[in-house]
Amino acid sequence: MEKILKLGEKEYKLHSSLFTIIDYRNVFGSELFSDIKKLEKSNNIKEEDFSVVIDTIFRIIYVLHRPFSKTSYNDFMMSLDFSILSNPEELQLLSSAIAEMLGTLKKGQSPSPQF
Fold this sequence. Notes:
single chain
């Protein structure tokens, strides 16, 4: 599946396939769906856990964008504007894109986590 995600003024082309699971593990050393389950359990994010949740969300977006870009995760993160974190609509777009791309969103269900 492919999708265009717009964050701020930039567009990111995303692609998901079965290889996404393998690529995520190869790049980050953890299991994609285990990390997604952690996100789903974090409906009420504690302040001290916010950076972990944000990192996990952007790791997933990075891996979904990786077929179209050869930048490192650090360079990818440095290219993003900090204002994304203060924009609830963009955070909701991120959650929805992940759920849609990975098939974890059921019809009529709202994506987790809620910001």
